[in-house]
Amino acid sequence: MTSMRPLLLFLTLCLLPCVAASQDLGTEAQRAEGKVLYDVKCAHCHGYNGDAVSVATAYLHPTPRDFSSGNYKFRSTPSGELPTTEDIKRSIREGMPYTSMPAWEDILSESEITALAYYLKTFDQAFAGPYGNPTVIEIPQAPRYNTDEAHLTRGRAVFEANQCADCHGENGRGNGPSAPDLMDDWGYPIRPADMTKRWTYRASPTREDIYRTFTTGLNGTPMPSYQQTIEEEDRWALVDYVWSLSEDDPDYGTVVTATGRPGPLDLAGDVDLFVNVPEAYFPIVGQVIEQGRAFHPGVNGIAVRAVYNETDIAFQLSWHDMTAETTGMNHPGLKVAMFDPDQPDTTQGNWSDAVALLLPAAMPEGLERPYFMFGDPRNPMSIWYTDLAADSARVLSGQGSNAITETDFQLEHTANYNDGKWTVTMKGARQHGDMIFAEATFVPISFTVWDGYANERGNKRGLSAWYHVYLEPMERVSAAGPMAKWALIVLLVELALVGLVRWRTSRQRNK
Amino acid sequence: MNLVVLLAIAATLVAIQLVVTRWLKLNRLAWMALWWVALWAAFSYGINPPLPNSIIVLFMAIITIALIAYLSADSDELQAAQSAITRFMVDRQYAVPLLIALVALPLLVALRVYLETKAAPQPPSSSRTIHPPPPPSINFNGTTLNLTTANNPYRELEDSDPEAFAEHVANGRRIYFQNCFYCHGDNMEGSGMFAHGYDPLPANFNDATTIAMLQESYLFWRIAKGAPGLPSESTPWSSAMPAWEDFLTEQEIWDVIIFLYEFTGFEPRAQGMPH
Questions:
Q1: Which candidate, A376, A342, A346, A340, places its Cα nearest to that of A361?
Q2: ipTM above 0.95, yes or no
Q3: A255-471: CATH architecture
Q4: Testing the interface with B: which of A112, A284, A289, A507 to mutate, by most B Cβ within 10 A?
Q5: Which positions 49-108 of A are in contact with B (Cβ < 8 Å)?
Q6: What is the pLDDT of residue A6?
Q7: How far is B26 from chain A (nearest CA, A)?
Q8: Distance (Å, rounded) from C-alpha B140 to C-alpha B203?
Q9: Which of A284, A463, A486 sits opposite B109 (nearest CB)?
Q10: Least confident of A94-98, A281-285, A506-510, B248-252
Q11: CATH superfamily of A18-132
């Protein structure tokens, strides 16, 4: 064996230049094809030079990736290293959920995605250098999801030991104490993932993906790599703990079913008021329709419950919010200047969080309803509004975004912010003015959330489309009566028919 | 049409004719029942988009009458069918099946009533007109635009001055990616990052039934006037399309229209062609 050593050394030295030349850079033709595709499909956001300088950059949050830096979020390689071709292709294929980066797998072919990946590599010379061939961290296949208490407790211990809660929050809602101050490598603000919403994870939501994300880190973001610091055995415990905090599907609803609860509805005193009441979850998206456009709202969904008694109806609204803004003020009618990339909004700190549920001012007879942007002159809207800095809730009238006025209708309310989650309740009369919440009817309803931290106020807001609230009748109609009635009718007809036929036949026989 | 289902139904009928009848002789009544079920399955599952339930009930009533008329056209057949039914109700050998039928039918009806009471009530909905007829003319910030004659003033540059045309395309690209792609998406397929939160969903421009079959003046109307400019049959109260006359100039709207066609590869419908 000893005699082989010089030979091996010689062979290694011979191979070195080949290693340097073996980076996976594609062919000239592939890169040329990639450039054509890139200029048509990608350049308007990522810039014609791959440096994220584009007409859209200022309008996007998170900011599009600067490919000239070689910093890629999704990688199977150690922290700080370049991604593999397959990693880049995967980001193109699957996109980055809840950012402006869509999934291209249904639009581009596999060979087009490959060509694009090779072209992206040309933006950073490092891909052609000695670091262009990074080592891949093998991700083991995930063991079965383990919900044993001891296992999850261990995961929680790993979560605490590695200070995950500093950014992601005690229960993973993206609300840790450091969360508001986080910046990416380019100095843009960046928000930590809300771990409870798996469908918003940038680097996909399988358990292997979670394992890889904290093992490799996300380059260019404050998410570090825990490749060296977490024991192999602890890794799946952490994965399963994060998994246990989260849901994989938003399961968006279309109807809030209000449950009848005879007797007083005590918002402040009755902690069980909304227990066992079905919850519906609705998407919240940016208001991009009128002036004050919100291109990246701070809230992306709202959960709603409702109960009612003989005279009143109460709603419970809850949503995740990185920070509670309970100072300053807010109002749906506030004017917001048109977004101008050259005029940064420096008003942060002035605006409180707020929430509203929007209803027609009168129950619509046909399908026509108020314009969902705070109503219109023909069809006014009732805005049940809570400014979370002021300890009050009231009903406003909307006849359009520029025509919001006060009304005399009063609301009771409670508001609570706990560990990244607002829970607000509002109670009003089932009949006020021309609006009547009648049993067994569908009342149009929509929602608006203002995140004061994101300078949302007035028409700069997260909103929902029209949905419905349905008042489930207090007295359930039993099916037994109609069932017995119809069964009996059918049976009698049958017996009459058979009897008639038999009677006629016997008469004919007797003849 | 759902060809797979229709072919499966036809194949089943042929198979029964060719195979099952070798062992089991089917009388006229059984065949009528088979046809009735086959037609019901064809109407219920073989047609896309699905027919409303009330239409299917109407069709099946007509078919029932037609089958009875067919049966009674031949008096021997009618006689045979009648006596078969009578035998089933009278003969002792059919006592058990008759009893089962007498009990099963009321139970089925009761089940149906139960399912109807338990079904979750559905919120009101209606069909929505996707491409409503445009008004003859619109007022765009003080000037009147005749929609039946208006042409994209920059379209002719495509042939006469390709360089100038490319500038309009680039400007349209800028406008699209600063304003439109949040809903209509990077690839113009109506799946932008906010699309899931709006109802109705944003239009998909890659679909051959959207911009490919519309004139540029129609697009100008839709972009300039947005949801508030829609007639009521197109639910202006829930559409999220902004009225872009508040944000964009006339030239910017024509430029973004040019970009929509350039990006998707479609040609606008020529002026003067009916909708």
A1: A376
A2: no
A3: Sandwich (2.60)
A4: A289
A5: 54-56, 59, 98-100, 102, 104, 107
A6: 56
A7: 24
A8: 23
A9: A486
A10: A506-510
A11: Cytochrome c-like domain (1.10.760.10)
Maximum Cα interatomic distance, chain B, rounded to a whole number of Å? 94
Residues A370-425 pLDDT 10s = 999 999 999 999 999 999 999 889 999 999 999 999 998 889 999 999 999 999 99
Q: What is the dihedral of CA A72, A78, A82, A86, to 10 degrees?
A: -80
pLDDT at A8: 52
Q: How many CB pairs (< 8 A) connect A and B? A: 141
Q: What is the mean pLDDT of residues B82-92?
A: 87
Query: What phi, psi does A189 have (nearest 5°)?
Result: -60, 145
B154 pLDDT tier (thresholds 50, 70, 90): very high
Q: What is the CATH number of domain A149-245?
A: 1.10.760.10
The conformation of residue B5, written as its DSSP 8-state character, comes to: H
- Closest by CA to A350, choosing from A459, A455, A448, is A455
Q: How far is A301 from chain B (nearest CA, A)?
A: 9
Q: Compute the nearest-CA separation of A213 from chain B (Å).
A: 23
Task: Measure in Å the smallest separation between the Cα of B166 and chain A Cα atoms.
Answer: 13
Question: Scanning the structure block, which residue is given the tokens 């049976």?
Answer: A491
**Which pLDDT does position A446 carry in this prediction?**
97
Q: Which two tokens stand for residue A150?
A: 């001891």
In CATH terms, the superfamily for domain B137-264 is: Cytochrome c-like domain (1.10.760.10)
* A472 touches A259 (CB < 8 A): yes
- For an interface test with B, which of A202, A288, A478 has the most B Cβ atoms less than 10 Å from its Cβ? A288
**B109, A497: Cβ pair inside 8 Å?**
no
Instruction: Tell if the CB–CB gap between A288 and B238 is shorter than 8 Å.
Output: no
3-state secondary structure of A282: strand
Q: Where in chain B is the domain with CATH 1.10.760.10?
A: 137-264
Q: Which residue, among B138, B201, B174, B240, has the nearest Cα to A290 in the 3D structure? A: B240
Of B86, B199, B228, nearest to A505 by CB-CB distance is B86
